Task: structure prediction
Amino acid sequence: MNYPIVIYPSDEGGYVAEIPALKGCLAQGETLPETLAELEVVAKLWIETAEKHGQPLPNVEGAIEKVKALSYR
Result:
């Protein structure tokens, strides 16, 4: 799935990346590649856990629209 991500600098240094559609799905790293690699691992685990518990995954298109709306504020 290709959910939109948000990346921003961390106050402590490095970066934070999150997938807003997947509540609580975020990762930190010292570099952008490290942060994105960690986010990929976390997202996979998030989705596997949701599927294991029979939880529906958020709609990708809906997630994209939410991120777009946030970016225009």
